Amino acid sequence: MSIILEAREVTKQYAGHKALDKVSISVPEGSIFGLLGPNGAGKTTLIRIINDIIAPDSGKLLFKGKEETNKLVEQIGYLPEERGLYKKMKVGEQALYLARLKGISKKEAQRRLKIWFEKFEINSWWNKKVEELSKGMQQKIQFIVTVVHQPKLLIFDEPFSGFDPINVNILKDEILRLRDDGATIIFSTHNMASVEELCDHIALIDNSKKILEGRMKDVKNAYKTNSYEISYKSDIDISNILTNGYKLLELSEEEEIKRAKVRINNNDNPNDLLKALIPHIEIHSFNEILPSMNEIFIRKVEENKTINQPY
Amino acid sequence: MNKIILIIKREYLTRVKKKSFIIMTILGPILLAALFIVPVYVAEMEGSKKVIGIIDETGIFMPQFKNTDNMQFLKLDMDIETAKKNIANNDLYAVLYIPKTELSVPQAAKLYSTGQPNIIVKGYIKSVMRKEVEALKLRASGVDPGILKSIKSTIHLLTIKINKAGEEKQSSTELSMAVGFIGGLIIYIFIFMYGALVMRGVIEEKVNRIVEVIVSSVKPFQLMMGKIVGVALVGLTQFALWVIFTMIIVSGFLSIYSTDISKFKESQLQMQTENIIPTDNMQQNADVNESVIAVFESIQSINFPVMIGSFLFFFLGGYLLYASLFAAIGAAVDSETDTQQFMLPVTVPLILSLALAQVIITNPDGPIAFWLSIIPLTSPIIMMIRIPFGVPFTDLYLSFALLILGFIGSTWIAAKIYRTGILIYGKKISYRELWKWLKYKN
């Protein structure tokens, strides 16, 4: 898998504080890359540097292995968190303007916008002023103008804010389809549920440093706790069976079905746990508990806090 | 380059298509033309003959009132009370009552009318009576009015400038004053109106949160310059349309009413000269001709290529200098109400230059005039005021050069503030903060 975008030791200093401290990330081509981090961690600064809106104090950006920022903006589509449109301008006129600023011809822009407007069934908005549209409607226009020039790399900063659940789904489908068509997507959000759902790679930035990066699967495996959830039917007390190294974390009961969360030792095989349980209880399900992104996020950020402030 | 043209186009077209622009473009020339037309039109409206009844108890003044195209004077043989009662019935415009007084110098003359009496009528009555009273007083002190007329003179002081080569040039201070001041005033208004427009445009983009979308496609500098140039073109368009429309309206009006106007002028001239003895009349005409010639000569004395060339240069140079500063202010704030603290240092030099116009005119070659016409922040207005008085070319070129440096400098500073400011929301910015922004790398 080739790397479409690489940031190497990017540092940005503002008067008083460091916004980015030697941050390096590698975004694989064709991935959906989650850029995560608490508020003020430096995500937006990094995104702005990638978009060539601001320049780093030191460090490099490589696009497809080459260090050329020229014409790069035309290969990137950026949906900023702070986004909006000219209120008094007509929708169509505005979409054309923004598309042409990305370097596509008027004719081509018209053709592509027509396709998008038909897809979102918003043809009738073309001659409306933006201020006549609802916030959700404006977001759709904003999404279209972000992707209309068919960029290789798309950067979405909190793309779902302002959308209702139905439109969030439409948008998610569009993002996945864009990925399938060959685009790479950098996705920055605080919504961990959508990260789990969409991303295959993630990087976590906290306090202007990157503290975690990798494939989602690998990250989850690295942070798994060897815990399993068992749902079963039985009248006996499960804690009596769980000896030699098994640790019962939690026990809950819901009508006849009981649920137990059990941690095993690192080297142990879950089959041994099953073997120990089968003679005593009627097992309905047996799952490994993988940490959620939410848990990993909170854990890493908390850890980082104690590292930074040891006393 | 293509992108900056796209931006200029958008900035230009959205403003030119606005209702307020169209209304201003139509209303402006109408108001301007009205300045020319209304006085003529009002006089025209009141052109019908007005009959003014006179009850002259002194018997001195009545013979002096001569009928004109617009006014007819009628001796009334009735007492004032009856005349007052019948003013409307007799189709009289007004009744002039001159009571008899001891000194034959009536202080108590009264003009009765149904409506507000016309200023021309009032003026005419006053001048007739004044002349007669003056003549009476002169006779009483034993002076022959003829002598007075012969000694009455008009002086035209021709001011002639001699340059180093010894060439003489006629000049007219009044005209220089007017031309220079109007040039400076136009630049002042243009900078304020369109500089503020640039500022509001920047604030609008920040408030709408569109600015980050756009700077992901173009450089912040391109966006800023596109806006400044676009707005400049809007201003030039409006200015050109005003000049053209005003000319069309005025010339159209003149061609329709030209006959009436010449009549009107004739009658005015008649009014003025009615009571003047023929020799005096000629004298006056000669005076008029002389001063017209003098004005024309001094108009020729103004170096128009320099004047117009400098006007265009200072007009654009001044605008570019200030518009970039206005753009920086717009970028540093979140709303128009926050602009106050930054507006002051920018507007002070502008207001100061206009306030000092009087000083400059009195002493156009003095040190204040020199320095203010060299410093870029004040030079666009002050130099315009100085030019008609004759400015050494070295001063002019120095001023040009510094203004070019000035707007390159201000654009550079503004660009730095702009590209940081547009991305910062919800923070009150201080001057110290701005200073930090200037030091940020790219």
Which tags fit this structure?
heterodimer; A: 311 residues; alpha/beta; Rossmann fold; Alpha-Beta Plaits; 6-stranded mixed beta sheet; B: 442 residues; D-Maltodextrin-Binding Protein, domain 2; 2 domains; two-stranded antiparallel sheet; elongated
Structure, explained:
- The complex is a heterodimer of chains A (311) and B (442).
- Chain A is an alpha/beta fold and 311 residues long.
- Chain A has 2 domains: 219 residues, 3-Layer(aba) Sandwich (Rossmann fold), CATH 3.40.50; 65 residues, Alpha-Beta Plaits, CATH 3.30.70.
- Chain A has 10 helices and 13 strands.
- In chain A, the strands form 3 sheets. Chain A has a 6-stranded mixed beta sheet, sandwiched between helices. A 4-stranded antiparallel beta sheet of chain A has the order 11-12-10-13, with helices on one face. Chain A has a 3-stranded antiparallel beta sheet with strand order 2-1-4, covered by helices on one side.
- In chain A, helix 5 links the parallel strand 6 and strand 7.
- The two termini of chain A are 43 Å apart.
- The mean pLDDT of chain A is 88.
- In chain B, helix 8 packs across helix 10, helix 10 packs antiparallel against helix 14 and helix 15 packs across helix 16.
- Chain B has 442 residues and is α/β, with parallel strands linked by helices.
- Chain B contains 16 helices and 6 strands.
- Chain B has 2 domains: 294 residues, no CATH class; 91 residues, D-Maltodextrin-Binding Protein, domain 2, CATH 3.40.190.10.
- Chain B is elongated and about 95 Å long.
- In chain B, 67% of the residues lie in helices and 7% in strands.
- The chains are: A alpha/beta (311), B alpha/beta (442).
- Chains A and B meet through helix 2 of A and helix 1 and helix 7 of B.
Strands of chain B, count: 6
**CATH fold description of the largest domain in chain A:** Rossmann fold
Annotated CATH architecture of the largest domain in chain A: 3-Layer(aba) Sandwich
Oligomerization status of the protein chains: heterodimer
User: How many DSSP H or I helices of chain B?
Assistant: 16
Main sheet overview of chain B: 4 strands, mixed
Strand count, sense and closure of the main sheet of chain A? 6 strands, mixed
Order of strands, widest sheet of chain A: 5-6-7-3-8-9
User: Tell me, what's the shape of chain B?
Assistant: elongated
> How many domains comprise the coordinates of chain B?
2
